[in-house]
Amino acid sequence: MATIDSPAPESETHDSHGHDHDHDHPAWLAHHFDTPEQQFDSGKLGIWLFLVTEVLFFSGMFCAYAIFRMLRPEVFEGCSQFLNTKLGAINTGVLLFSSLTMAWAVRCAQTEEHKKLVVLIASTLSCAMVFLGVKSIEYSHKWGMGLLPPGSYFYSEANPHPTMEQMVQQHGFSESAAYFLHNSLYFLCAPFFLLLVGTVIWAILAFVQKKHFQFECAKPLVVVCLSFFLGVGLGMILESGSSEGHGADHAVAHVDGDHSEYAHDDADHSHDAASGVIADYAETSDDTAVEMLAAQDINTGAKDLLNARRTQAELASGQVLPSDADADMGIESIEQDVLTKRQAGVFFGIYYCMTGVHAIHILAGIGVLVWLLIRAIRQDFNKQYFGPVDYVGLYWHLVDLIWIYLFPLLYLIR
């Protein structure tokens, strides 16, 4: 029986828009877009909407910071003494440089400079790893001192570096929790060490088996993993060489009028000055005429004068008045220790929440940048298709911008 060959269906040779697949739709252009410009604009709109949600997410934590700081400014001013400004400044410079390399990478993707694109993406990854290495030093140092959120805070000025036994016996931690706090740096570095070992093994096997593409991917990743330990070493040098944030200037607030003192050195000067006031008062109290007048019941004015001088001397010495004492001398608050679970613990809870979530975003950015690095080595990007590099660059700039706000708010404002 004869058959008639019918023409192939239109869907087999043309897409839904009537364009030929081979000529009008390259591999990097999704089937539901007509032009590269349409695909790029759609992706750009999507990443901006995502960044808006990220801004709203961080806004809640910034609001919590602002409210608590407004209510208890002395707590923030005192506890910020434990933050190492040098480490924060180093991380700020590292992230600013990473923004430069990321923006440069976008330009290289547009101009099809593939080798330079690989180098710049690897540089951005290395900066991110240095940031995490420095941050691991900051976290481990504070955890060992007991500068933790309210439920776990146990810092003691008399013993700023407790042993594992003291954590268990005096602060009620389990042995496993005390072991983690005492050796937290090793736990933070362990995943990156395993990642480094795995990457080195991958590079060696790829080189021996002559798998060129895999070897080209493994080489920059080995450098990236080593950058984490570069940050750890840099953080250890700055942390050990700086007295800032080590308890040398312990944050004990002494509020006298509108003047607050937090360091022990300043407190010693205040105590010396107070001793001088007491001595002057002792000399003036020898005025027998005032004492004799105050001894008479009818001389209420002399009694009030004598009581006012005594109260003023006690306040100048930093002594706490008893609860039933009345003192209306224009002083809103008196000596107060801010290093308590309820106060300092809240500060460090906010600190870990804001910087920890930021670090999680750094880790997410590292994962996406590794994906970009592999695609850049494969030379997937060209003049018409560079959207993924641009989108990741916008995300990375937002992560850097958030740290630009965190650094002065937590480390610098005193």
Automatic annotation (TrEMBL):
GO biological process: aerobic electron transport chain
Primary location recorded for the protein, binned into one broad class: membrane
Compositional bias of kind Basic and acidic residues: 11-22
Chain positions covered by the region annotation Disordered: 1-22
The keyword Oxidoreductase is assigned to this record: yes
This enzyme's EC code(s): 1.9.3.1
Name this polypeptide is given: Cytochrome c oxidase subunit 3
Organism per entry: Neorhodopirellula pilleata
Lineage of producing organism: Bacteria, Pseudomonadati, Planctomycetota, Planctomycetia, Pirellulales
